[in-house]
Amino acid sequence: MKNAFNALLRKGVWLALHLYFKKIAVYGKENLPKGKAVLIVANHQNALIDPILIATHTQLKPHFLTRASAFKNPIAAKLLDFIRMIPIYRVRDGIDNMAKNQETFEKSVKILSNKGSLLIFGEGNHDMHRSLRPLKKGFARIAFQTIDENPDLELLILPIGINYSNHKKSGSQVSIYIGEAFPANDFYPKNYEGIIKETTDRLGPLVTHVPRENYSQWLALLGKNRIDITDPESVKKFIENQKLSQETEPAFSPYFTNKVMKVFHFPVYWIWLWIKGKIKDPTFTATFKFVIGLVFVPLWYLFIFTGFPSLGWGSWALPWAFLGILYLLSNTNGQA
Question: Do you know which SUPFAM superfamilies this protein is assigned to (predicted)?
Answer without folding.
Answer: Glycerol-3-phosphate (1)-acyltransferase
